[in-house]
Amino acid sequence: MQMEKKVGIIGAGMCGLLACKYTLSKGYTPFVFESRGSIGGVWTQTFKTTKLQTSRSLYQFSDFPWPSSVPEFPDHSQVLDYLISYATHFNLLPHINFNSKVLGISYEGPSDEEVQAWDLWSGTGEPFNSKGKWNITVQDTNSLSIEVYQVDFVILCVGRYSDVPKIPEYPAGKGPEAFRGKVIHSMEYAAMDFDTAAEFIKGKKITVVGFQKSALDIAMECSAENGALNPCRLLYRTEHWSIPKSYPWWALAYLYFNRFAELLLHKPGEGLFLRLLATILSPLKWVISKFVETYITHKLSLAKFGMVPEQSFHKGISSCMLSSMPEEFYDRVEKGSIILKKSPKFSFCKEGIVVEGEATPLETDLVILATGFKGDDKLKDIFVSTTLRNHIIIGSLFRQCIHPRVPQLAVIGFSDSISNLYTSEMKSRWLAEFLDSTFKLPSIKEMEKDVERWDKYYLKRKSGNDYRRSCISTLHIWFNDQLCKDMGWNPKRKKGFFSELFEPYGPLDYRPIS
Questions:
Q1: Counting CB atoms within 10 angstroms of each CB, which of 85, 370, 404, 503 has the fewest?
Q2: pLDDT tens digits for 429-466?
Q3: Do 491 and 403 contact (CB within 8 A), yes or no?
């Protein structure tokens, strides 16, 4: 029976490869649909200067380590090569349908009303329902022909940071249409080949909007191309903590990525003892945050440039609002090839950008919006059913993977963490064990209560705009413990009491234990 079950996987980025590998390991037949002509997801279209934000020790597969020759922060081509090597090593490529754009998915079986009346997920608490199938409508991007595939289970690995750009809203008549220059999203800049991108920005007065990783990388490329003669203006809403590339990641791991660090934090579903312990130890959490803030402020001379964030470092890392700072960024600010400009709100005029509260516009030839993506919309739009579309929102998933009211379907890769590869692999393994009937899901009401507990946790810890739903960065061990318990694994992966308490956790700790 197991061999007859078909699993449809949408997307062949990092998450799609993981889903494919682990469903194959359980004997299922995966059908992977990828709209592009190659694997790699967001790593197929990057900026020339893009590098991995985290240390490679955190961004790696548990059973496929990086080559020793690769530096601690690999560049985009090295990351893509690593993903291709992984797919080749585990023979995943034959299961991938390239140039296959999924137009929509629809559930065929019990009606929406019946599904919403169930007490158990999919009616039984098990992964499959004999009465239900998913229809995946796929268009060949070359021939434009359309074909419908029917599968028993769907895994959405469509990626949160691509395809659907988030564009700021402006008053009527004060949007990009009022500007005589050109306005693009960072997605369009990333789609250019490197030579075209360099020519595109050459000799222009450029304003980059944003202060996360994409904005910083683009500003660096513009400043390298144009220098102080045509400085790149970086327009940002609020300051964020960024980690210098020279910062020793092993030190950060010992401060934030071990069990002791998680004892300092309140957790969703914690008992009385852990709640009291976190309260007692909370001053130490403040001390650690201040220590890191002091180091970064000094290392990057943030006070000199007026760039010390108002929120604590702990708030930044807990809400997944950190980025890595490109080397020599503030050197270029000092030399004048990058100009920092704070602006909570702005609009467009003929000459360029109007900052709220200022009369004189910022003259600009080109505006690049590094303002992120609409991950929720991208996920919702894939559903044909309005009912299911309204159910699927980021943060509404049990174990960050399964929606209690959407049968025979899982989502991988839509929660943020210290390393999305690391946590996506854990969820892929959890899902594979569920598909293999290693465990059953709780009742729908119990899953919804668990989702509500996590949602309250996120909301309590949000700080203004510095908030991302489904961020498990500082609780990744607590989260992985839950997955391990579901699967019947021992969640404690270290040898010895002190190692278990103080050594950082990472992907290699979850290698299969014989």
A1: 85
A2: 999 999 999 999 999 999 999 999 988 887 766 544 54
A3: no
User: What is the phi-psi region of residue 87: left when phi exceeds 0, alpha when psi lies from -120 to 50, beta otherwise?
Assistant: alpha
Contacts of 360 (CB under 8 A, 6+ apart): none
Q: What is the DSSP letter of 339?
A: E
Q: What is the pTM of this model?
A: 0.94
In single-letter form, the type of residue at position 201 comes to I
Q: Provide the token pair at 14.
A: 């990092």
Contact 285, 265 (CB under 8 A): yes
The identity of residue 468, as a single letter, is R
Token digits for 150?
Answer: 């029917």
Main-chain dihedrals φ then ψ at residue 7, nearest 5 degrees: -120, 120
Gyration radius of the chain's alpha carbons: 23
Q: Collect all residues with Cβ–Cβ distance below 8 Å to 438 and sequence separation of at least 6.
A: 487, 488
Task: Read off the pLDDT of residues 326-385 as tens digits, 9 standing for 90 and up.
Answer: 999 999 999 999 999 999 899 999 999 999 889 899 999 999 999 999 988 899 999 998
In residues, how long is the chain?
514
C-alpha closest to that of 161 among 324, 14, 32: 14
- Across 141-181, the runs of DSSP E, i.e. the strands, are 146-151, 153-156
Sheet arrangement for strand 366-369: 182-185, 366-369, 206-209, 232-236, 338-342
Q: Phi and psi at residue 75, in whole multiples of 5°?
A: -85, 175
* Exposure of 75 in the CB half-sphere (CA atoms within 13 A): 6
Check: CB of residue 30 under 8 Å from CB of residue 7. yes
In the block, tokens 């530096």 appear at 71
In Å, how far are 344, 387, 424, 482 from 400, measured between CA atoms?
32, 20, 10, 11
Measured at the CA of 467, the angle between CA 461 and CA 471, to 5 degrees, comes to 80
Dihedral of CA atoms 14, 321, 50, 367 in degrees, nearest 10, equals 120
Angle separating helix axes 272-300 and 249-256, nearest 10 degrees: 160
- Two tokens at 463? 């700080």
From CA 366, how far away is CA 445, in angstroms rounded? 51
Distance CA 282, CA 289 (A): 11
